[in-house]
Amino acid sequence: MAKNRNFPINSLKDGQLNMKPTVINTMSRLYGILFLLIGVLVGSCNKPADDAPLTTPYVLNIPKGLPPMEPFIPTNNPMTVEGVALGRKLFYDPILSDDNSQSCSSCHKQELGFGDPRQFSIGVDGSVGTRQAMTLINLGWNQNGFFWDGRSATLEDLVFEPIRNPIEMNTTWPEVEAKLNSSEEYLSLFAQAYNIDKIDSVHTVKAISQFLRTLISGNSKFDKWYNQQAAQLTESETRGFILFNGEGADCFHCHGLGGLITDNNFRNNGLDAEFSADEGRYLVTGNPSDKGKFRTPTLRNIQLTAPYMHDGRFFTLEQVVDHYSEHIQESATLDPLMKLVGNGGAQLSQQEKQDLIAFLRTFTDEEFLSNPEFSNPNP
Length: 379
Description:
CATH superfamily of the largest domain: Cytochrome c-like domain
Number of strands: 4
Distance between the termini: 91 Å
Helix content: 25-40%
Strand content: under 5%
Strand order of the largest sheet: 1-2
CATH topology of the largest domain: Cytochrome Bc1 Complex, Chain D, domain 2
Order of helices and strands: EEHHHHHHHHEHEHHH
Largest sheet: 2 strands, antiparallel
Shape: globular
Number of helices: 12
CATH architecture of the largest domain: Orthogonal Bundle
Radius of gyration: 30 Å
C-alpha cells in the first residue's frame, strides 16, 4: 500500500498519534493561529462597540409619593447625563423654530408647571392654536398616548410634532438639522452624548425626550402630608381632602391620590352636549364612543397652570369647581363616573367649593417650579 502523504502517521502507540517532528511543528503553528483567532473574536465580543459613546448613566430622582413602578424609558434611548444636558439646552433654544424666535419653553414655562398661561399658544408667524398647551409633568409614567387626544404613542413621537406643525414652530426637520450641524457647540455636544459626527432629527428628539423625563414633581405640601413628612393641612384643606377623596366632590375616580393625580385616560367630563368645535379622541380613533373625550390632566401644580380644560375655557379654579358642581352637560359619551349629572353636578355649597380649592392648592410643588436643573442653561 502506498504511503499516505497527506497524513504521514508512522505508527499508533499507546493510543497516541506518533507524528514526524515537521508535521508536529506545522500543526502546532496552525493550532496557534486558530487559538489566536478565537481570542480575537472573544475579545471583540467583550469590547465596547466603536460607536458606543462614553456616557454617564442618569439616575432619576423619584420622590416617595410617586408610583412604585419605574417610569417608562425606551431601551433605545437610555437616560444619560450627557443626553439630558443636551436635551435641556435644546428645549430652551429657539433654533428649533422657523425664524429662531421660539423654543419649546415659549409654551412650557417652568414657573407655571411647564404650561402656557395663554388660552391658545401662538406660533412663530402669529398663528393661533385650537387647544391649551398641556403641562409637562411626570411624563415618564404615561403610556396611554400624549397630547389631549393621545395621537402620539410615545414621548419621542410627541417631541417630533411641534417642529413641523405649521401653527407652532412651522419648520422642517431638514432645516433644523442644517442649523444644528452648522453649530460647533452642538456638534461637540451631540458627539459627547451619542458619538455621532452628523446631527439628525432622531438624536435631537431623543435628547429632548430625556430632559422631559426628568421633569418630575412629587414634593408638594400634599405629598409631604400624605407621606407623613411633617407637613400639616389646615382645617379647610382637610375638609377639601375629604370632599376630593369621597363622594362629596367625587374627584378621586379620575385624579387618584398618592401618585400622578391623573389616570391618564380619556374621558368626556361634561363640558358640552355636542362636539362640533372639537371631537377630541374621536379624531384619532374614529370610534364614535370617543367623541368629546380628552386626556385627564394631572392636578399637580394646578394652582399655576390656568387656563383649564382642553380649550382653556376656564381661567380660574373657581370656574372649574363651578362646572363640576352645577354645569355638567349630558351627552351620549358622557363618562359614567359623572354620576351626579341628573343634578348638573355635585351641588357643592360655597364653603365646600372654597375648601376644595384650598386642597387643590396643596398640589403646588415649589421645589419643582424653581429647580435650577430644569431652568434655562443658555446664556
